Each structure stands twice: as C-alpha cells, then as structure tokens.
C-alpha cells in the first residue's frame, strides 16, 4: 500500500504529468469554446427570420422564372431558336415550387446534444488517450532510463510487485483524470446545448447510451495507457513506446493500406487498426467492396463486411495483454544495470 | 564472530553472440564479519560491481551461494532488503526531483518516518541544497545524495560501491569518520574503492578480486604482513649488473617482485644473508640490502599483477589469474 501511494505521488510530482494535464485541459477547453461559437440557438425570432428569407427567395425565383419565360416567348416570336438557351418549352415546366425553399436551409447550425454528443465523446477519448500514452510511457521509461527503477528495487526487491504497483498507480491516475475531465466535458456540452443549442429528447435511454459510450472511452484510454507503459518498460526507454507507436501507425495506416490497395484485397481495411478504433466507438464499422458492383448495370448494393465492436475489443485486448505479459516477463527475467 | 555476508563459488557469465563468453565472476568467494569495515578491491573490470549487483538481486548469478545476515539469497532478499543499504556504481537519480523529494519517495516506499530524510541530509552535508533539483548537482553532491539514500534505512549492512568517487578531500575525510562511526555503532560496511590509502586507513579487513576470483582476503595487517614479510630492497655497486643479479636470484628460487632502474625488490626472502652470498658467488657485490615495509597499494599491485611496466600499456583484463584451488601466496584465514 505504501508503495502504491508513493507511486501515485511520484507520478503526480512529475513535470511531464503536470504539463500534459495542462495541455489536455487547454486543448479540450479550446475545442469546447470554439465549438460553442459555431452553434446558435434557434429562437422563434431566428426561425421566423429564416422563414421570411426563404419566402423571399421563393418569390424572387418565381419572378426570375416568369421573366425568363417571357424572354423566351419574345425570342420565339422573333423566330429565333430557343431550345438551347432556354430548354424545351421555354422552361415552363420548371416553375419553382415552395418546398424547394425549405426555411431549414436558412437556419444557422444548432448543436443537438442528443444526436451529436457521442461524436464528441470519441474526440474526448482520443485526446485523453494521447495523454495516457505519453504519461504512461514516460512514467516507467524515465524510471528505467535514469536508474530510478534500480534504486527502487534496492528497497523493494519484488520486481513484479513493483512493476504492477507502478502500473496500478498509472491506471488509477489516468482513470481519475478521465472521469473528472469526462464529467466536465459532458457538463460543458450540456451547457452549450442548453444555452446555444438544444438538449431536446435527452431521455433516460439517451443518457444510458451516453454512459456506455463513456465506458468505451474509459476502456480505450486505460488500454492505451497500459500498452504505452508496457512498451516503455519492455524497451526500458520512453522513446521505445513512442517509436513502437509510430511504427505501428506507419505499418498499419500507411503500409497495409497501400499493400491491400496494390493487391486489391477485398475489404483490406479490416487489417487496418483505425477501423477497429472506429468500430469500437460506432459499435460497428461497415466496409464495402465496390469492385463487386458493375455500375453500368445500374444501382447496386456493394458487398459488405462488418467489423463489430466485439472484434475491436478482441484485437485491442489481445494486443494489450501481449504487451503486458511481455513487460512483466522481461521484468522477472532480465538483469538490471 | 558471525558472518554478515557470505559468498561461495559465485559465478556470472555474460554471453554475447559476437564476443562469446565472459566469466565476470568465476567461482568467487567472500566473507564479511559483523561490525567490520571491509574493503573490496580489484582492478577495473575484475567483477566488484557485478558481485554487488548480484548480491542485491539486480542480476542473476549462474551459480554459487550467497547469504546476507544469515539469510539465503536471492530467496530471502525481500525480508533482508530493509536492513541492507546500498549504492551501486555512480547511482543515478531522476534529474527533475530535488534531493528531498527523491529521499522522501524512497522513505515512503520503505515506510520510514519523514524526519529520517532530514537526518541523513544533514549527515551528508546536503541540508541547505536539498530543495534543488538533482540535475543541478555536482558529481560529489550526487554522490553524497547516493550515500544518503543508502543510509536512509539505517541498515545493518551498508554496501558502498566507490562512494568516494567525486568527493572532495574534506568529503573523503568526513566519509572516513562516518564509516568509523557507523562501524562502532554496530553497522557492517562493505566498501569498494580504488583509493587504497583510504582503504588502509579505514578498513579492518579486505577482499581482493582479480578476473572474477578472489586472490587475497583477511584482516588488513595480516595481508600486509604476509606480503611485507621478506620484502627486501637490493642495490648493487654497479647498476649494470642488475639484470644478471635478477637472473641469478630467480634461478635460485628467490622471487624478484620488481626490477627498478637502480634496485631490485625481492619478496619472500627468509634469510637476507643468502641473497648476499648468492650474488657474491657470481662476483656481484651488494651495496644495500634493506627489509622494507610495504603498503596496501604495493601488495595490491603484486597480487593482481597490475603494476605498470615501463614501456608497456597494460590492458584491462590483464591481471592475475588464480586457479580455483588455492589463493595466491597461500595465506589468509
Ligand atoms: N552487461 C554486461 N554484459 C557483458 N559484460 C559485462 C556486463 N556487465 C559487466 N560485464 C563485464 O564483467 C566484468 C566485471 O565488471 P564489473 O563492472 O563487475 O567490474 P568492476 O570490478 O566493478 O570494475 P571497476 O573497478 O571498473 O568498477 C567486466 O569484464 C565487464 O566488462
Ligand atoms: Mg565497478
């Protein structure tokens, strides 16, 4: 227990942890603030103005249309060829209709909490996952690299317990940060919804779904933190985790994408990691194979491949477990110098 | 007296695909009695740090047995760790924490009271600089912090790998006093160092290691006595006769320890008159024949065979290799 508290304190004392926390806060606050300016509440005035504008637009285009028809008929009377300039029958069949001027299109953007907040949960999860990665990797990486780990082992020789406690301290901290910031994030968007958007139809069911999305976000953040920790511990250097992340990103997002493109593997994106991140949040990711379509024969349903969130859980879970097992195994075996 | 530290037949082998096998420790033995200040000496790369790391559970040995405070290692390490304070070869600390934070975190991990941190900071003379980041410390200040971290748990056994590294003369003298005081209070200290004058001043006993094996051990006076016994300096009337004299003596079974420009140092001479007679028979006349008292440094150089030879550059790993069965010189406990 004393070791756990010590490690929490060590993590909190680190400058990088504090710096990253500040950056995370500033980043999230900036996104929320900037977004709040882009949303406008649809008050009756605004709606009425939009209605008036579309009425006016309708009137104007009917007048334009009438003038064109008159011009065309005059030209016909002069015996000119009009098909090309005015279309068949002087465009008389194309009278503007009122439903073509929906006042909706003249409305400013309004944030809809119920429909759009889930996307912002994913944005939040991405930002906090980055935080978890950097803090997790450097927490153990710097310890290895500066000899702090060796010093600690002179006091606490049970290596697995030491590494496990450090991991627990990291995950506790990351969890705390995620929960607190997640609550603030939700509150901020609820506030944007009530003051500058709409929070209509936010039923208990909607909240439950938002809660589940939140849990997904927390799980992703913890997995990312644990993987970063494991990689940095395996390589005994912070840079190892960052390097591995860059390598995986390059191989998965660029290398595999190009390879499956060249080889025209059907549903090649199912080998790309970001597909799984996407399906983790959206409950599933749908991949289409347009090569099965012959558009010349008309509309076509392309072949579909669905990546479910369960598959994502499996992929990320297996990856995280492999990295952690590797880290703990080498911790047990390797000489420390 | 009971042994606080016992090592028997310790082996550590490093394997690399390119350079093959290196026996860093090759059947090494060591024994330290309670309440002693014990010097651990050996040339560069002889295996001192490897021994201490193995003892502290940082590296795995390939064979042999170790015990601290009567408990078998590495099995009992978690139980004895609280009673062993150690620094291992220029210890490093997280550079952005202050000395007080560094020690505070260690004390917390070891469940020690906080005021202990200030006590050891005072002891090593870092009191007024304890709030500054370790990054800004000088070499000697880092070394003092390391000593402080080892003293923090008020250990029964204190293991210090080159603690004087980087200390100023005042610091070295202070360290000497500190060790003495600690030993008097019942602490056992194992000290590895290359400053042999220092070791001779503060240590009760020593172990000398060369190429991963023990070459000598025992109380300092015994080690010195065993080697100053029969050490004589010989000068001849004609300096040019020295090589011939060396050859004559070697042929008659007398050991020529070193050949200097104007004299020979012989060791293991029982009767100096014998030397005089042997040389006179060859028409070589002795102008001086004096028994000399040697210091630890000369004994060390002789035992490890690392004395510099004019015109040669000795490489590391070029030192005395003893066979497994006996110790060089055949003395000791
Ligand atoms: N990780 C390692 N891999 C390979 N060889 C090693 C390793 N660590 C130490 N050695 C070798 O083991 C031998 C003993 O090294 P050690 O550090 O114990 O020497 P030392 O007695 O402490 O020397 P010094 O007086 O220079 O500190 C050396 O030959 C060294 O090269
Ligand atoms: Mg060393």
Short synopsis of the structure:
The complex is a heterodimer of chains A (337) and B (333). Chain A is mainly α and 337 residues long.
What does this structure look like?
The complex is a heterodimer of chains A (337) and B (333). Chain A has helices spanning 2-13, 15-38, 44-77, 83-86, 113-146, 148-155, 159-196, 204-235, 238-262, 273-282, 309-333; strands spanning 284-289, 303-308. Chain A has 337 residues and is mostly helical. Chain A folds into two domains: 2-41 and 111-333, no CATH class; 44-106. In chain A, strands 1-2 form a two-stranded antiparallel ribbon. Chain B has two domains: 3-225, P-loop containing nucleotide triphosphate hydrolases (Rossmann fold, 3-Layer(aba) Sandwich); 232-292, Alpha-Beta Plaits, CATH 3.30.70. Mean pLDDT of chain B is 87; it is low at 325-333. Chain A binds chain B through residues 2-3, 5-6, 9-10, 13-15, 142-143, 146-148, 150-158, 335-337, and chain B through 53, 56-60, 74, 77-78, 81-82, 84, 86, 88, 91-97, 101, 105-106, 108-111, 149, 153. Residues 48-49, 89, 161 of chain B line the site of magnesium ion (MG).
Looking at the overall shape, the CATH architecture of the largest domain in chain B is 3-Layer(aba) Sandwich
- Quaternary structure of the protein: heterodimer
Q: In order across it, which strands form the biggest sheet of chain A?
A: 1-2
Number of self-contained structural domains of chain A: 2
Morphology of chain B: elongated
* End-to-end CA span of chain B: 14 Å
What order do the helices and strands of chain A follow? HHHHHHHHHHEEH
- Give the end-to-end Cα distance of chain A, rounded to a whole number of Å: 27 Å
**Number of DSSP helical runs of chain A:** 11
Shape of chain A: elongated
Counted beta strands of chain B: 14
Low-confidence stretches of chain B: 325-333
Structural class of chain B: alpha/beta
Q: How would you classify the helix and strand content of chain A by structural class? A: mainly alpha
Q: What kind of sheet is the major sheet of chain A?
A: 2 strands, antiparallel
CATH class value of the largest domain in chain B: Alpha Beta
């Amino acid at each position: 227990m004393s070791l756990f508290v010590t490690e929490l304190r060590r993590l909190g004392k680190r400058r990088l942890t504090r710096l990253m926390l500040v950056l995370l806060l500033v980043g999230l606050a900036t996104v929320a603030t900037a977004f709040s300016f882009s949303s406008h509440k649809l008050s009756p005035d605004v709606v009425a103005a939009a209605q008036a504008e579309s009425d006016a637009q309708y009137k104007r285009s009917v007048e334009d249309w009438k003038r064109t028809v008159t011009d065309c008929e005059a030209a016909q009377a002069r015996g000119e060829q009009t098909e090309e300039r005015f279309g068949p029958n002087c465009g008389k069949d194309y009278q503007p209709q009122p439903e073509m001027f929906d006042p909706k299109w003249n409305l400013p953007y309004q944030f809809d909490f119920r429909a759009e907040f889930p996307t912002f949960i994913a944005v939040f999860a991405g930002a906090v996952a980055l935080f978890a990665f950097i803090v997790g990797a450097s927490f153990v990486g710097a310890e290895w690299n500066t000899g702090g780990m060796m010093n600690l082992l002179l006091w606490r020789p049970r290596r697995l317990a030491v590494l496990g406690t450090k991991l627990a301290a990291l995950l506790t901290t990351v969890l705390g940060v995620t929960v607190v910031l997640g609550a603030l994030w939700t509150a901020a968007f609820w506030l944007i919804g009530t003051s500058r958007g709409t929070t209509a139809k936010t039923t208990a069911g909607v909240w439950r779904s938002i809660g589940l999305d939140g849990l997904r976000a927390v799980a992703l953040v913890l997995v990312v933190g644990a993987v970063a920790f494991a990689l940095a511990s395996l390589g005994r250097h912070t840079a190892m985790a960052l390097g591995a992340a860059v390598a995986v990103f390059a191989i998965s997002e660029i290398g595999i994408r190009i390879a499956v493109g060249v080889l025209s593997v059907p549903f090649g994106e199912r080998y790309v990691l970001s597909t799984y991140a996407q399906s983790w949040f959206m409950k599933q990711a749908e991949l289409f194979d347009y090569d099965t379509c012959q558009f010349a024969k008309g509309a076509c349903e392309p072949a579909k491949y669905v990546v479910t969130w369960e598959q994502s859980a499996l992929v990320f879970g297996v990856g995280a477990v492999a990295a952690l097992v590797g880290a703990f195994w080498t911790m047990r075996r390797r000489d420390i110098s | 007296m009971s042994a606080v530290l016992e090592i028997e037949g310790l082996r550590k082998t490093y394997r690399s695909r390119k350079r093959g096998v290196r026996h860093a420790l090759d059947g090494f033995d060591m024994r330290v009695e309670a309440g002693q200040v014990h010097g651990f000496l050996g040339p560069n790369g002889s295996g001192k740090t490897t021994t201490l790391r193995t003892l502290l559970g940082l590296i795995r040995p390939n064979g042999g047995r170790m015990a601290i405070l009567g408990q078998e290692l590495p099995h009992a390490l978690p139980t004895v760790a609280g009673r062993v304070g150690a620094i291992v070869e220029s210890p490093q600390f997280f550079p952005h924490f202050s000395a007080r934070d560094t020690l505070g975190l260690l004390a917390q991990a070891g469940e020690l009271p906080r005021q202990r941190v200030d006590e050891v900071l005072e002891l090593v003379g870092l009191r007024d600089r304890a709030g500054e980041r370790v990054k800004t410390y000088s070499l000697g200040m880092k070394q003092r912090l390391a000593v402080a971290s080892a003293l923090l748990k008020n250990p029964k056994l204190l293991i210090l790998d080159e603690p004087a590294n980087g200390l100023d003369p005042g610091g070295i003298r202070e360290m000497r006093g500190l060790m003495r005081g600690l030993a008097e209070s019942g602490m056992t200290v194992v000290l590895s160092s290359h400053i042999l004058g220092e070791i001779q001043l503060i240590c009760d006993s020593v172990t000398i290691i060369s190429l991963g094996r023990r070459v000598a051990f025992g109380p300092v006076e015994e080690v010195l006595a065993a080697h100053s016994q029969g050490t004589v300096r010989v000068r001849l009337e004609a300096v040019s006769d020295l090589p011939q004299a060396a050859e004559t003596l070697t042929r008659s079974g007398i050991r020529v320890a070193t050949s200097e420009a104007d004299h020979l140092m012989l060791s293991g001479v029982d009767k100096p008159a014998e030397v005089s007679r042997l040389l006179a028979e060859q028409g070589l006349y002795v102008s001086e024949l004096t028994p000399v008292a040697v210091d630890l440094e000369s004994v060390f150089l002789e035992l490890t065979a690392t004395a510099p030879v004019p015109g040669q550059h000795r490489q590391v790993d070029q030192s005395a290799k003893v066979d497994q069965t006996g110790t060089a010189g055949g003395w000791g406990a």
